[in-house]
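User: Teach me something about this protein's shape.
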Amino acid sequence: MTGRFIFASWDGGGNTNPAFNLAKRLMPRGHEVLMLGWPSMATRAADARIPFASYAGITAWPEGNLDDDWEWVAALLGGDDVQADIVRRANDFGADVVVVDCMMSAASRAAHQLGLASSVLCHTLYRPFRDEWGDLVVGDVKAMLDQATQVLIVVPPGLDTPGYLPPGTEYVGSICEPGSPDASRLVDWDLDLLASSDETWVLLSLSTTMMSQTRALGPMLEALGALPVRVLLTLGGAVAREDVSAPDNVLVRDVVPHDFVLPYVDLVLSHGGLSTVTAALSAGKPLVLIPQGRDQSLNAQRVEACGVGLGLDRESTPSVIAEAVTTVLGNPQFVDAARQFSESAVGLGRGELAAQRLEGLLAEP
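Assistant: First, the predicted structure itself:
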């Protein structure tokens, strides 16, 4: 049974990965998809051949750090005008299911107004989002989640703080890029040396939205430049290459799908965004995290609690960063713990279970 799925998303960084990757899994199965989002998502949608439309009435665009213009962002996540636009587009599209970003209360209300099945993609740690800080973003977070037909938590089972899950809520694991991450794909980014090299590789990646990356990168690059490792730095479109002064052992690339390079690296050094964390764990790679804000400290705490990496303070010196990287690389227990998460991700289909759960909504009355 095929259907029409409308995705209501926004460009908050890592939250776009599960939405895009899930849409990519649905379309080859005969389903029709329409992605709604911010204009900054249009190019990526076009590259993936996903039908896309931006929300009506967006006349201004925040420059710099999204956290510095949160009132503007909040109006788009929960505004009545956005709700009305989603309702109109869903009716025009003939949607059967609304896939709701967990921070878009406007989309949740739109699905309820339309009387359609809704699936909330929770791209954060579920327990802190539901119990601690979600109300700051969506108002009554418990009411929004409980109103949904289903809630898919795109987090590996075991990474989140343990606790009760309401009916219809489950961990589906990271929703990875469809297709095999085989070495042939590395040629697309001139990175085939990753598969042919026996050197130790570190993937260094910060947020795809502005979070003062240039300042944060300095100590990290200095630390890695002093170690006997090779480094792949991906800028995610948030930093210009000319603004980065990289040591000789660092390769700099703009945007690279992490799912296809992670099998060939040994460690991930990151800000602690959950999308990067879950992608690394799905590939069985340990982490060193230096949170820069938002929910990243919570993610780092869980990474440490699960034994898959270390978390550092934002103001950590290059020597402290280098020591943490050396510790994780030199201790097999971190790799062993990360590999357990990888085995779990394979069991969940790296996004296949999530696609099946969405398809299951089509059969419900």
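Now, about its shape. The longest strand covers residues 32-37. Residues 4-173+348-362 form a domain with the Rossmann fold fold (CATH 3.40.50.2000). If you'd like, I can walk through any region in more detail.
User: That's plenty for now, thanks!
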